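haha ok so turns out i had the wrong file open the whole time. this is the CORRECT one, sorry everyone. sequence first:
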Amino acid sequence: ELPPSEFMQVADSTWLVLSVVSNGREPPGCQATGVTKIARSVIAPLAEHHVSVLMLSTYQTDFILVRERDLPVVIHTLAGEFDIYKEEGGECVPVTCDDVSNGFLKPKPPASPTLHPVQSPQTRFCVLTVAPDTLPAIATMLIDVLFYSHSPPWDAAPGSQDLDSITFFSFSLIEGYISIVMDADTQKRFPSDLLLTSSTGELWRMVRIGGQPLGFDECGIVAQIAEPLAAADISAYYISTFNFDHALVPEEGIAEVIQLLQQRQESGR
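then structure:
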């Protein structure tokens, strides 16, 4: 419904959403949450089959977006590990490999993935949710933060932001559930009794992936970050955007995360 505009860029692919639901068969002792929880079972296999993904972690769960044209490869890759369903008319209908076999193309062997640089600003972030019925009470403030506060200059070069601190605000509304990521200073502008977070109230630090806009054709970017964090049992929220990828990790673990990712960089050279 959005009118064409010279100010709006649209990727040429259409994407489908995969929602991974646990069936209670997780191995004992599995503590990590977020993208690292599905790193070995979903993220790594898709990367190995040269499937590009966009990752969206929310307060409630994690979503993986895959290009519509890659769906046959995705189903063939994951069918051995997962029961796969598609939504039709509000109902979940089982999907088998036979349903998409006519469109299945054997994936090309993936090229060696590019090891993208990572940067970690000093900004501390909160991962929050809000009850939908209280949204009107903060709507004006949300609009101000989303569209008016901290806006970069129009003539600023892409990626020119000082990464000692970073402006990042994510708002998602998915099936009525609201998820918000904001920096700790911005959180202070909102009524504290309307924002819900974990009982520990933990703060998060960010790792931004990519020294320049990443594009959508490369695969394995999420896996490069998620796999070493999963091996170390470190929770992470992961948010892919049009230009860069962002991983949020618990503040107390940021030093270990940076060390792990630096080792990844060095071993890949």
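The CA atoms of residues 259 and 265 lie 10 Å apart.
again sry for the mixup
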